[in-house]
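Notes, p. 3: input format for complexes.
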Amino acid sequence: MAESGYHSRIAQVHSDRVVTKFPEAFCKAARVDQKYDFDPRIRQSCSSERINNVSLKICKMIIIGDVSVGKTSLVNRFCKKAFDKDYKATIGVDFEVERFEILNTPFTLQMWDTAGQERFQCIAAAYYRGAHIVSIVFDLSDINTLASATKWLEAAQKENKGAGELLVFLVGTKKDLVAPQTYKEVEKEAIQVARQLNAEYWAVSAKTNEKVRDFFFRVASLSFEGTVLRELEKRQFTPVSQIGDGVSIQLNRNNPPPPRSSKTQCC
Ligand SMILES: Nc1nc2c(ncn2[C@@H]2O[C@H](COP(=O)(O)OP(=O)(O)OP(=O)(O)O)[C@@H](O)[C@H]2O)c(=O)[nH]1
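Output follows (267 residues plus guanosine-5'-triphosphate):
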């Protein structure tokens, strides 16, 4: 791709979606890595424009969890900067896409917001396939929704058998509804569950916007890093300066086409 093409792709990214620093985890006790910076190989490869020119970096995140825990609200807060206090059930699946620029490299995060209602599971599960990231959402003000986390992860794993390892997040929402003392107790349990699931724990509020941006930046950065590292490992005998030559990073494994509109699909 010509240099102007590269710059026009970069130009599409909103200044609010630029990542230059490795985002921190929410809490040390339940994080998926123990690092405080991007892998040096990532910085090195991203400083070479050639990887940006050819490689297409896209990751798919599915957002799953019990009914009404706040999945749509979390995505809408980040993507549309909006919060709706009225509940409208997700019917089937909803789709959003966000473009980031991470270490000067364009990166696209697809977000598949799925229905929590049992009767829509037949549709929703079809969209789990090809996921790289799984965000299991629960309601911090309703501990029963945390108990379902294992079941949700198993459902996601079932649809992705034989594919690469999933990057898993356990996200407690509606933090604004929970008193600090209660929150501490819920957090202890959530951290335990997160460790069992090899997930990274986050607590957010779509209503107040607490930690929402930090969460999505962390998701984007970790998945971006995993993607580039996998590509580098695949091409370990190729000089870093040549990575990206003539090859696109292929990340969409069997993605079904995006639904045409929000909250309108049904069995
Ligand atoms: N106070 C508060 N309410 C929230 C928050 N997030 C979501 N809600 C409310 O919780 C209800 C359900 O939110 P949704 O985002 O629609 O839940 P969902 O998980 O997408 O629902 P389904 O997809 O149908 O399973 C709505 O009334 C939201 O306004 C939050 O952070 N704080």
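The domain at 40-212 is CATH 3.40.50.300 (Rossmann fold).
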